[in-house]
Amino acid sequence: MSFKSILKLDSPIISAEKRKAAGGHAARNAARKFKNDLQQKMETGQHTGKTVTKARGGGFSVRHQQSKRGERPAPFTRTLKNSIRDKRVSETESVVKVEAEYAERLIKLGRVIVSAKDRRDGQKDLDQEKTKEFAKLL
């Protein structure tokens, strides 16, 4: 699962090198913000599922609040949260991926990792970054 930010740059007014640099900065900044927002939402999101006690060895246990269907996965080991990566794949393209192997299984169980609202907000952030970066060129 991934969110891709791509810019099409073809204005003849500004040199190709400057357009690519500005587009690359905008895509990279938007991808980084999208990743950070997803990680924060996982930590602070609502988790209203069962509370379970999990053994941790040595006679110790820990209580964990699970998530219900339609909620973001509740962090326990933070493996899922830490597996969200942003990567620059070309001069004007960056991708945010959830690399945890079990992410697809969570989606099938009804957990929301990336919602439609997250995608809209990510697109809005990309548009704002483009405006900011190209304003610097003028």
Q: What does this protein look like?
A:
This protein has 138 residues and is α+β, with helices and mostly antiparallel strands. 44% of the residues lie in helices and 22% in strands. It has 4 helices and 5 strands, in the order E-H-E-E-H-E-E-H-H. The chain has helices at 16-44, 79-82, 103-108, 116-137, and strands at residues 2-6, 51-57, 60-65, 84-90, 93-98. It has a 3-stranded antiparallel sheet with strand order 1-5-4. Strands 2-3 form a two-stranded antiparallel sheet. Strand 4 (84-90) and strand 5 form a beta hairpin. Helix 1 runs antiparallel to helix 4. The mean pLDDT is 85.
Question: What would you say about this model in short?
Answer:
The protein is of the alpha+beta class and 138 residues long. The protein has helices at 16-44, 79-82, 103-108, 116-137, and strands at 2-6, 51-57, 60-65, 84-90, 93-98. The protein has a three-stranded antiparallel beta sheet with strand order 1-5-4. Strands 2-3 form a two-stranded antiparallel sheet.
